[in-house]
Structure formats: C-alpha cells, structure tokens
C-alpha cells in the first residue's frame, strides 16, 4: 500500500506524475504542447540504459521522433510544424535530454539547419528546403574536420571539372549523419567557403560510426568521407551566410542537454532513495527516505537541475529576440536606418553573451551533480548495469565540445571592454 505524504498524495503518485516544481513553462501553450511529447520521451528513456550498455544506436528512437513531427517543430503550420518559439523548442529539448542526450545531439545539426532555412534571404533556396523539411527529411552534421586544415579553412574541397562539380574530403564529429537523409557539408571552393547538402546515400559518401568517446557514445559522431561525389548545383547554398545566432543556438542545444541530464539524475536519485530499504548503521533514520543528510543531497541535485533549466530558458529568450530582430530587419523597409541597425546588432550580441554567461554556470552545476548523486546511494549504485555513470560521462563529453574557459574569457572581455563574442567558430591548426 502506498504511503501518504502530508498533502495526501502518495509516493506512487509522485513517482508517476510529471514533476511540477521545475518552474513556469516558457509559454502559455507549452504544457499542452509538451503533453503530446512526454509519452514518447518516456518511451525513449525506458531503453536508454540498455542502449548505452549494448552500444545500440537510437535508429528506432529517432524514427519515432521524425514520424511524430519533432523535427518539424519550428516550421510554420503550413509546412507541418507548430511554429514553436525558441524557448518552447529548448524547453522540449531539456525534456528530451532527460530521456537521452544522445538523441538530442543526433538532431542538433538538423535543428540548426532549420534555423538556416527559416532565416534565409534566398527565397528560392528557402522554399526548396522548406519543402524538404516539411516532407520529413533529416539533416546530419558534416562541418568539422580532424585533419590538418588551418583555422578558418577546410581540407574538404569542391572542384569544377568537365564532368561536373565534385566533392572530396573527410569530416569528423559528423553527429547525426548516420541517421539522416542529407549531410550538411562545409567545403572550400578556391578561396571561398561554401555550404551544401549532400544525400547520405549518394555514391562516394560513406558515414562510419567510429566515435570512441567515453560519453555520448550513441550519437554516431564519427567519420564521413566524400570521394569524387557528383554534386548537383542546387545542393549548394547560393551564399555562405548563416543565421546570426548560430553559435549561441548550437551551444544552447548542448546546455539544454546538460539541463536534461541534471533533471534526469535528480529524478532518478529521488526515486531510488524513496525505494531504498538498506541503511547504514551510522545513518540518521530507519528509512533512507527519512535521513536528513540524504534528503539534503537529493535537494541539492534538484536545485542544480532547477537552476540549469531556468538559465537555459532565460538564454533561449535572448536567442528568440535575435531571431525576431533578424526577421523584422529583413521584412522592414527601414532596415537601413541606423537606429534599427544598431538594435539588430545589439540583439545578436546579447544572444551570444547571454549563452556564454550560461555555459560556466550550467556546466559546473551538472558536472557536480553527476558526481554528488552517489553520496545519496550505496555502493550498488556504481554497478554498470544501473547506468548512473552515464550521467557524468555524457555531461563531461558534452561540456568538452566548446571549452568553458574560453566562454568565461569572452564574457569578461565583453564586460570590461565591450568586445562582442565571435559569431562563428572554426577549429583547425593554428
């Protein structure tokens, strides 16, 4: 029989209900929107530990999301989406991250490409890709390289031959591409950088799951090779302009993943403490669930998760303002007016700074929580089959992608000297 709490709910009720103390939703309609997705998120989470141990890639889970329309959330209703705002999107990414951050990272490149399409000035290119995205096409990553190219350039190249355009090169960190229909590629075209989308199954393209990281092991973030791939001209974007809040957006996806990890581990530990019947002789109660020191640990974990979520959603508002400023400027006849131009530039700068300010705080909160959780549990919690180690492994891996030390420096440079963070990042030899 379930034990009653002082407010007359049962422990079983608390265990099965959606946690109600995470803070206000990011919009009035968010709960109605999220309610439709939570059963699918729960289904994804149910197999997360088993997949992590068996190294089973989430092909099926990503298929569920695609079929349900998750990859179209930001699209207008006429293109099969719900016109989700960025705070709404990031709220859902936190919840999906609580289920499995591998899945969040696997769709990260796709979500960024959607922003490229929504903010594009090239009407024909935009319409073409809105149609593809509306049909459910999925985009994977093919920008980063692990080779010898210098910072700001790519070793991957396109060449123009009598037989047509050809793509050759090798990419790494191709997150999500093994699950995708298209690979978003950056390449050198002489002195210029070009962006193109290449069908994953076209001849000459090979995507390999050789990612060997100790965390985020199921994102298929491995190698993609392109050998004399015949490129159709309409696969190449007409310009190299990307959405102005790109760096902030991609980093905030990582932060949403971290917030999701914080939420998952906080709930996981609370559930285990509630059910735990083994106690230490030097404990403070006959039931672990009544031990004030253990409850303090659980409270610390939930506080960290609460704060991480709140910071992500606050930063998402800044990105939304950047998006709106960009769209307003594109639609306005007065876009050249100096005051309006300054406001747009300021909105973009604020988005980058607010996300940079979030990185160090969220990283520290979640990494500490992923270690502290073991203080509330016994040695059996360290068993590989329990899967609790994946929280730290995944959080540590995610937070290594864009080092927080640089983010902290950029925030300091902005605060002291007004130096705006760079709007695009490149990795390579110095």
TrEMBL record:
Family stated for the protein in its record: Belongs to the HpaH/HsaA monooxygenase family.
Recorded superkingdom: Bacteria
Biased composition (Basic and acidic residues): 10-20
Boundaries of every Acyl-CoA dehydrogenase/oxidase N-terminal domain copy: 43-137
Record domain Acyl-CoA dehydrogenase C-terminal: where: 254-401
Keyword Oxidoreductase (UniProt): yes
InterPro entries assigned: Acyl-CoA_dehydrogenase (IPR050741), Acyl-CoA_DH_C (IPR013107), Acyl-CoA_Oxase/DH_mid-dom_sf (IPR046373), AcylCo_DH-like_C (IPR036250), AcylCoA_DH/ox_N (IPR013786), AcylCoA_DH/ox_N_sf (IPR037069), AcylCoA_DH/oxidase_NM_dom_sf (IPR009100)
Region Disordered, residue ranges: 1-22
Pfam family membership, one: Acyl-CoA_dh_2
Keyword Oxidoreductase: yes
Protein name in UniProt: Alkylation response protein AidB-like acyl-CoA dehydrogenase
Keywords of this entry: Oxidoreductase
Listed SUPFAM superfamilies: Acyl-CoA dehydrogenase C-terminal domain-like, Acyl-CoA dehydrogenase NM domain-like
